[in-house]
Amino acid sequence: MKKLLFILMLTILSTAGIAAQQPAAELTFTFTRQSGSASNQYAVWIEDAQGQFVKTLYAARWTANGGFSRRPTSIPLWVNKSGLSGMARAQVDAVSGVTPRTGTQNYTWDGTDSRGAAVPAGDYVLILEGTLRWENQVYYRAPIRLGSGASVPQISVEYTTGERDTTAERAMISDVRVRVLR
After folding, report:
1. Residue 43 host element (H or E)
2. Torsion of CA 92, 96, 99, 104, to 10 degrees
3. Global pTM?
4. Distance between CA atoms of residues 113 and 48, nearest Å
5. Are 128 and 29 contacting, i.e. CB atoms less than 8 angstroms apart?
6. Which residues contact 101 (CB under 8 A, 6 or more apart)?
7. 11, 4 Cβ separation under 8 angstroms
8. Among residues 5, 74, 81, 93, which is most buried (max CB within 10 A)?
9. d(Cα 108, Cα 12) in Å, to the nearest integer?
10. In whole angstroms, how large is the CA radius of gyration of the chain?
C-alpha cells in the first residue's frame, strides 16, 4: 500500500511539473537594431488582469544592470513594474540578456510566475515595451486568457514621443504576433 501511494504521489508531482513547463503563450516580433545611443532597449513581461506584475521573460541587460539609473527613460514601465531596484543580482541575471541582433525574436511564457509557481487559469496581459530613442517609447499589449484553449489576442500598440521624436525609429519593433498555446 505504501509503495502504491508513493508511486501515485510521484506521478501526480511529475505530471504537475510537466504541466507547469508547457508553453502558455508565445510572442514573436521583428527587431531591427537602431544606430546611435539611447535606443535598442526592450523588455517583455506578464501582468495579471489587475495590472500586477507576474514575470519577466526578457529585459535588455544594459538597463537591467543599472542603466536605468543613468538613463531613466530606458524601458521605464518595466523598471517600475518589475521592482528591478529591489531584485537580487541572480534575479536580474536570470531575466536579462544582451541586445539581440536584427531579426526575429521569440519569447515563450510557461504559465509560471517569477518564483516558478504555476499561475491559475484566468486573464493576463503580455507586454512588450521598447525604448526607441531617448524618451520615445512603444508599448505592445496583448490580453491573453489561460485555461480556455488557444485564442488570437488583439494586440494594441501605443507610442509615446518626446521632443526628439523621429518616426524612423518605430521600425525597431515590428510585426508583433502573440499566440496563446493553452
Report:
1. strand 41-48
2. -170
3. 0.85
4. 10
5. yes
6. 33
7. no
8. 74
9. 25
10. 18
